[in-house]
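Let's see one such:

===
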Amino acid sequence: MDKIAVGKNKYGLGVFCITALKKGERILDFSGPAIVFEYPLSQYQNEGHAVQVGYDSYIVPQGHGYYVNHSCHPNAIIEAVTGLAALRDIDPGEEICFDYSTGMDEDSWTMRCLCGSPHCRGLIKDFKYLPPELQRRYLQLNAVPPFVTVDIPKVA
């Protein structure tokens, strides 16, 4: 039985938990056509859906992965570059979201955030622009792919 399903949210579609997920549980793997850019992702038609998996490489997710939305206060994190895992226990009915910034290092794409969280930053942009305390938290959770942290000073 599937533990997630695509459903409607206030902005369109998202991925929702239909069977409880435990902290650390793998939710999905992003898979789909690979794209390598010699120019910024912002030149690509479906830029907001691409998941960065390397310095200049992306996956355009298919299936459930295409509909996973951003939140500045996420309940899921990137795992092993192309996976998504539960950051905490997730109850049925909750929308599954991750912080897009944790997987971004390109300096050319931003998006206005509409997550509605009290922690909302207002603009989604690269990991290196997150507040240092948030960077530390995500790094401690191993929620940041290695290609994103290459130029980030080590934080204690």
Notes: Residues 132-140 form the longest helix (9 residues). DSSP finds two helices and twelve strands in the chain. The chain has a mean pLDDT of 88. The chain has one domain: 4-148.
